[in-house]
UniProtKB/TrEMBL annotation:
Swiss-Prot/TrEMBL GO biological process terms: cell wall mannoprotein biosynthetic process; protein N-linked glycosylation; protein O-linked glycosylation
GO cellular component: Golgi apparatus; membrane
Species this protein is from: Aureobasidium namibiae CBS 147.97
SUPFAM superfamilies: Nucleotide-diphospho-sugar transferases
Entry keyword annotation includes Transferase: yes
Pfam family, one: Glyco_transf_15
Coiled coil feature spans: none
GO molecular function ontology, one term from the record: alpha-1,2-mannosyltransferase activity
Entry-linked InterPro entries: Glyco_trans_15, Nucleotide-diphossugar_trans
Keyword hit for Transferase: yes
Chain spans, region Disordered: 43-73
Membership in a protein family: Belongs to the glycosyltransferase 15 family.
Protein name as annotated: Glycosyltransferase family 15 protein
Keywords, sorted A to Z: Glycosyltransferase, Transferase
Length: 407
């Protein structure tokens, strides 16, 4: 018997709604095995090296012996290095959290100075509270206006219009001018500050980060002794919508400055299009892989080199720090991947670290408070943001860990 027209319409409508809901469920990024060109299946993920037992890098390492790292020892074993933080007065609680963790796990032994930067003067309350967290020297520095202000060649109307477009594409902080200024300062300004003129190495620390593992050797002396340029813990994919023209501008720079490329570079890591093909397409040839620079231990001589200075000046003039949302993480990473010997870039596997929502948590008795091998405590799909597999594929693990694993 034929169904009445009203019932048939209701059945068709129900089927349409059912199909729509099914499509939404299967499109949702609740699992890394979801379909689509940009999906990353769990089967594509290699075993996380953090699950393997992690010790220290091989000797020789510089350690505390007697008063050789005492805070008041003018002839200590400390080298020209500092812990560095760009922080606002209102972020006091967050930076105290970070200081508490890093002092507990490392710096109470080595007493390297803390250097805080702000675009406005620090309050006495900020100074008093941070000084109470450490026995080491603490320095409070004001960023010069010429390092922070928007450059004269940036068109403010175009900035606002571009920010509107970025917002439509869900790019965070697109209208926040101070965020753009921060990214530019972290990319190419901080190492020019007079307070750092005699410093070679820095360890960047941001508010609200966690450190989980005791580190019993001088990481700065490790960088110096092993001739390392850059150290990272987390390696991620970036938002391609925020850096759409960064790689094309890089290609323009290389066309005239190809001599800066290092023969042992990480170009394949920068341009991979197999694992996240949509990222490569949307970023116009860039994989978007980058070192997450809220943690970085680095040699400022690299940023002060002609290769990096010329590259930064090219990017700065292109305006992408304001017309898009170029971050210091992809800028630093591209430069390192092109202009530095990849063997001088070190994964600090043994330093447990978290910046929400990502972790570096090694398998070590020196670590407390994090789950071994956990990459994120957020949604499961966030695991696909891990770009370490590509780093290991194209560059390899740091030689120090290879030696350890061979043992």
């Amino acid at each position: 018997m034929a169904l009445p027209p009203a019932v048939r319409l209701m059945a068709i409508g129900t089927m349409v709604v059912f199909c729509y809901l099914c499509a939404q469920i299967f499109r949702a990024p609740s699992s890394l095995s979801a379909g689509g060109k940009d999906a990353v299946k769990f089967s594509d993920m290699p075993r996380d090296p953090n699950l393997d037992p992690t010790g220290e890098p091989p000797e020789p390492l510089h350690r505390v012996s007697g008063n050789n790292y005492a805070p008041d020892n003018v002839n200590s074993n400390r080298i020209n290095a500092t812990i560095l933080s760009l922080v606002r007065n209102e972020e006091l609680d967050g930076i105290l959290q970070s200081m508490r963790d890093l002092e507990r796990t490392w710096n109470h032994k080595f007493n390297y100075p803390w250097t805080f930067f702000n675009d406005v003067p620090f309050t006495e309350a900020f100074k008093k509270a941070t000084r109470a967290m450490t026995k080491a020297e603490v320095r409070y520095e004001l960023i010069p206006k010429e390092h922070w202000d928007v450059p004269s060649w940036i068109n403010q109307d175009l900035f606002r219009e571009s920010a509107d477009v970025l917002k439509e594409h869900d790019v965070q902080y697109s209208h926040m001018l101070s965020y753009h200024q921060m990214c530019r300062w972290n990319s190419g300004m901080f190492y020019h500050h007079p307070a750092l003129k005699d410093m070679q190495y820095y360890w960047r620390v941001e508010p609200k980060v966690h450190f989980f593992c005791d580190v019993d050797y001088d990481v700065f002396r490790f960088m110096q002794d092993r001739n390392k340029t850059y150290g990272f813990t987390i390696n991620l994919y970036d938002s391609p919508q925020s850096i759409a023209t960064l790689w094309p501008e890089t290609v323009k720079f290389l066309a005239a400055n190809g001599h800066h490329q290092h023969p042992n570079n990480a170009m394949k890591w920068l341009t991979d299009k197999e694992r996240r093909p949509d990222h490569n397409v949307q970023a116009n040839g860039y994989s978007t892989c980058h070192f997450w620079s809220n943690f970085e231990i680095a040699d400022m001589n690299f940023w002060r080199s002609s290769a990096y200075e010329e590259y930064f000046d090219h990017l700065d003039r292109a305006g992408g720090f304001f017309y898009e949302r170029w971050g210091d993480a992809p800028v630093h990473s591209i430069a390192l991947g092109l202009f530095e010997d990849a063997r001088k870039i070190h994964w600090f596997k043994d330093i447990g670290y978290q910046h929400i929502p990502f972790f570096n948590c090694p398998n070590s008795p020196k670590c407390r408070g994090c789950v071994t091998g956990r990459f994120t405590d957020g949604e499961k799909w966030l695991n696909r943001e891990d770009c370490r597999p590509n780093w290991f594929k194209y560059v390899g693990m740091s030689p120090e860990w290879a030696v350890q694993n061979d043992d």
